[in-house]
Design goal:
alpha/beta, eight-stranded mixed sheet, Protein-Tyrosine Phosphatase, Chain A, six-stranded mixed sheet, 40% helix
Length: 432
């Protein structure tokens, strides 16, 4: 890692408000700054086709899966996601390879030389960096993950060929609204006139919000959860049986069996969303779908989704960080805790509904509470107190590293260790 790159990234962290570090104070709703930056860099997003992916949970898995399939089909594919776990460059990839250090340095140098007079957030500048890099690299397609919300998100300056909204749950309520319908209206802001949209999971008034928005702008809409997949876990993979019929762009039925390397209770819903989206991309052939879904993590660099970190004891991490994600994680951990001694390392940001999450957790496990090293972190002591109030047996630790080390040292080889609660916790654990 060059010193010039290190200094450049440090400048980005120090000079620009960063949501993942300071929270809502870094959130800048509105697209004026994005458009100013976009104009200064020559409207780079107009030089490639894009797929826009929003939602509360599952955006990362869906985005990486779509990129993997497009790569398997032989296209040059950009992928823009957030946040990163270990290296800033994880956010911006072309065909699975992270943006080069030199490209990061060059972009920031050009931005500073332009003297635009605007004050972008970290995410605003990083988004235009991604678009500029994808245009320079000549990508055919770019999969663009929404940062926060949708309607006023920096990424919403694009006009994609396809929009995807994974699901809606209560997260960032102070910024997006305190009801599912209110949040859905913000997420629905990425639905563009005439651009097909796939909704992964919705019900009741949330479904109606999406339906009305699509009708208003003349966007073809498909609800993936109306076409559930048959699936099973087999040899460390999730195997799906999928009949390619429900998309308007697919002329004939086609039954495909897909063995995906992403496992976890939430992944069948993510896979249904991906496969429904692929119905709008009829140029992607059967072989590319099978190949791309089989190797998402290795092909795209995806980390932190029920990811094996170590063996003896088996140690798994997952970046699920809100109650919507824990509706899937908690039952899986409870099932494991019934069969094996289970130790759970947990930390959270201070804007999460931890009480709701703790009410779902298995009481048979032993807990190791720790605060990640960011300003937004909730203290380990407050987590311990809340855990005890919910009947969870645990201890507080001074750092994520200490909590992981102690959990593994206290484990027998056949015990199970889980690390999660926050992207920050997983990032620190992966860096150990």
């Amino acid at each position: 890692m060059s010193s010039e790159y290190q200094q450049t990234v440090q400048w980005l962290y120090d000079q620009l408000p960063m949501f993942s570090v300071i929270g809502p104070g870094a959130y800048k709703p509105g697209l004026d700054t994005s458009r100013t930056l976009d104009t200064a860099f020559g409207h780079p997003h107009e030089r490639f086709k894009s797929i826009h992916v929003g939602g509360t949970n599952g955006k990362g898995s869906v985005s990486h899966s779509l990129a993997s399939v497009l790569m398997a089909a032989g296209y040059k594919v950009g992928l823009y996601t957030s946040p990163h776990l270990v290296d800033f460059r994880e956010r911006i990839r072309v065909n699975g390879e992270m943006i080069s250090e030199e490209a990061v340095v060059d972009f920031v140098r050009r931005y500073r030389e332009y003297g635009l007079g605007c004050q972008p957030s970290f995410f605003e500048l990083t988004t235009i960096m991604a678009f500029d890099y994808f245009a320079t690299q000549g990508v055919d397609y770019a999969v663009i993950e929404v940062g926060l919300g949708g309607r006023l998100d920096t990424t919403n300056i694009i006009t994609p060929i396809l929009s995807v909204i994974t699901n809606i749950s209560l997260d960032h309520v102070a910024l997006l609204g305190d009801t599912p319908a209110a949040i859905a209206r913000e997420k629905a802001g990425i639905i563009k006139p005439g651009v097909p949209v796939v909704i992964g999971e919705s019900a009741g008034e949330v479904k109606e919000v999406f339906r009305q928005k699509a009708e208003e702008v003349g966007a073809p809409i498909v609800f993936a959860d109306e076409h559930p997949l048959n699936w099973r876990e087999e040899d460390g993979r999730t195997v799906y049986s999928w009949v390619r019929t429900h998309g308007p762009c697919v002329p004939t039925s086609e039954c495909i069996e897909v063995a995906c390397d992403l496992i976890g209770s939430c992944q069948p819903k993510n896979a249904a969303t991906v496969l429904a989206a692929l119905d709008f991309l009829p140029f992607v052939h059967r072989e590319a779908i099978v190949e791309g879904m089989a190797d998402v993590q290795a092909r795209t660099g995806l980390m932190g989704r029920w990811m094996r970190m170590a063996d003896n004891p088996e140690t798994i991490c997952d970046t699920g960080h809100n109650s919507g994600a824990w509706q899937y994680l908690a039952p899986r951990l409870a099932a494991i805790a019934e069969l094996r001694t289970t130790r759970i390392v947990l930390g959270f940001a201070n804007d999460k509904d931890v009480d709701a999450i703790f009410s779902m957790l298995p009481k048979a496990a032993t807990y190791y509470f720790a605060a990640p090293d960011v300003k937004r972190a909730r203290s380990a002591e407050s987590l311990l107190a809340l855990g005890e109030a919910n009947g969870l047996n645990g201890r507080a630790f001074a750092s994520v590293k200490e909590a992981v080390d102690v959990a593994r040292k206290e484990s027998a080889p056949d015990d199970f260790v889980f690390v999660g609660g926050s992207n920050f916790v997983v990032a620190e654990a992966l860096a150990i």
